[in-house]
TrEMBL record:
Belongs to the DegT/DnrJ/EryC1 family. The active site is at 200 (proton acceptor). It comes from the Bacteria. The modification N6-(pyridoxal phosphate)lysine is found at residue 200. It comes from Limobrevibacterium gyesilva. This is DegT/DnrJ/EryC1/StrS family aminotransferase.
Length: 381
């Protein structure tokens, strides 16, 4: 019996199985680093930057210590600070909003599309007008998030940003490897920031991140900022920077993971397809952004209400099938950000938080796992 209590629980994420697939290459890569001992900015870091830039089609890649630091360096490079409004979706991970606040700028929360969950360009336009009319903050930048693996509507966002004079940052932390209109994410905005947190589609064995840009001056600035604002020599300090480099060991891990990344993206897409066809008549499945390929970091379904979600999660858990909620609270409702929020209503983000639920999706789920997950969802509608 698939749902017998003795069946092994389905893993929400399975980093051990993935490690077994790349074991020999990974060992060779790690041994090379242990051999040369250049633990900071060793040769693997430059090799990874080259590999990642080629993979996504960006001219420059600058690896950094995390996705959050990638966002921070991108904003520091533009001098974003007090008095600046940074527009971003209310329905995203906390780091997107944290960074402007750390720099003294003000996050302006924008509502999202109820079916794709991505930042809504029309809502963005409306929020920019309100900020302009208020004359307290200067509209300065847009952080578009590619949520759950799907790309945001970058053509629409970039057009608005160009009209309004906003710098664009693509928070691609969940979506490295996704593409829109046949182009991989990495060049959709003025700067693209991604994360290699272990649970992201391309995950390291610790923290890591990267910035992508086609602008070589900006790439130089990012390299300077990640190493204390250094100039062409180590003891020339040109600007206030930070310690934001990626470890050589993490670069080695990521180089090894890149050998299977495309296959893993394909495996995630196959699982999403099975979920669509087996669950599409029973629950609201995630709507696809037109002409895009998702990296499928998260497969999120919508249930009718919070009570139905509670019942579903409890029933699935009893069957040994995990689920998760991204995100139980939109950012404008978080204690840390309430004071920064101007009080605008963001009804879609509020609604999604009450009834969204994520199913496991990772390349090492077996066919039997996927079928058990579908059975568990269908049994608890
Ligand atoms: C994970 C994530 C980040 C932060 O990345 P870290 O590497 O954990 O710092 C930023 N934005 C979004 C949308 C994320 O999901």
């Amino acid at each position: 019996m698939n749902d017998s209590p003795t069946a092994r629980p389905v893993p929400f994420l399975d980093l051990k199985a993935q490690q077994a697939r790349i074991a020999a290459d990974l060992r060779r890569r790690l041994d090379a680093v242990l051999g040369h001992c250049q633990f900071i900015l060793g040769p693997e870091v430059a090799e990874l930057e080259d590999t990642l830039a080629k993979f996504c089609g960006a001219k420059h890649c600058v690896t950094v210590s995390s996705g959050t630091d990638a966002l921070q360096i991108a904003m520091m490079a533009e001098g974003i600070g007090p008095g600046d409004a940074v527009f971003l979706p209310a329905f995203t991970y906390t780091a997107t909003a944290e960074v402007p606040l750390v720099l003294g700028a003000t996050p302006v929360f924008v509502d999202v599309d109820p079916r794709t969950f991505q930042i809504d360009p029309e809502q963005l336009r409306a929020r920019i007008s309100v900020v302009r009319a208020g004359r307290r903050l200067r509209p300065r930048a847009l952080v578009g998030v590619d949520l759950f693996g799907q790309p945001a509507d970058w053509p629409a966002l970039a057009a608005i940003a160009a009209q309004e004079g906003l710098f664009t940052i693509d928070d691609c932390a969940q979506s490295f490897g996704a593409s829109l209109h046949g182009r991989m994410l990495g060049t959709a905005a003025d700067a693209t920031a991604t994360s290699f947190f272990p649970s992201k589609p391309l995950g390291a064995y610790g923290d890591g991140g990267a910035l992508f840009t086609d602008n070589s001056d900006r790439a130089t600035l990012y390299r300077s900022l990640r190493t204390h604002g250094e100039g062409t020599t180590r003891y020339e300090v040109l600007r206030t920077g930070m310690n934001g480099r990626m470890d050589t060991l993490q670069a080695a891990v990521l180089l090894s993971k890149m050998t299977v990344f495309a296959d893993e993206l394909a495996a995630r897409a196959r699982i999403a397809q099975i979920y669509d066809s087996r669950l599409g008549n029973a629950v609201t499945i995630p709507a696809r952004v037109p002409d895009s390929v998702s990296a499928w970091a998260i497969y999120a379904i919508l249930l009718p209400d919070a009570a139905a979600r509670d019942r579903m999660q409890a029933g699935m858990k009893a069957a040994g099938v995990p689920s998760a909620i991204y995100y139980p609270r939109p950012l404008h409702r978080q204690p840390a950000y309430r004071d920064a929020h101007d009080g605008a209503a963001l009804p879609v983000s509020d609604d999604l938080a009450t009834r969204i639920m994520a199913l496991p999706i990772h390349p090492d789920l077996t066919e039997e796992d996927v079928s058990r997950i579908c059975d568990a969802v269908l049994a608890n509608i």
